[in-house]
Amino acid sequence: MTDHMNGDYIVIKAKDSGVNVIGLTRGHDTRFHHTEKLDKGEVMIAQFTDHTSAIKIRGKALIYTKHGMIDTED
């Protein structure tokens, strides 16, 4: 299996329209490299990779990880 397939995944389910999902780069300088906007009920599966070190989620959403579920409203 290649290295890019070994990163952790998270699942984001928008509870409201306009949820922003922002990928942040890995390396010496952290920068935004990708953004998505989800509508209510949409689901996105995101992966941490060699290029993505963090994922920022802005808005009302449920986030599922191997560590459990997070509700942004809690």
From TrEMBL:
Pfam families recorded: TrpBP
InterPro entries: MtrB, Trp_RNA-bd_attenuator-like_dom, Trp_RNA-bd_attenuator_dom
Keywords: RNA-binding, Transcription, Transcription regulation
Domain Tryptophan RNA-binding attenuator protein: 6-73
Keyword Transcription: yes
Assembly: Oligomer of 11 identical subunits arranged in doughnut-like structure.
Family under the similarity heading: Belongs to the MtrB family.
HAMAP family xrefs: Trp_attenuator
Name of the featured protein: Transcription attenuation protein MtrB
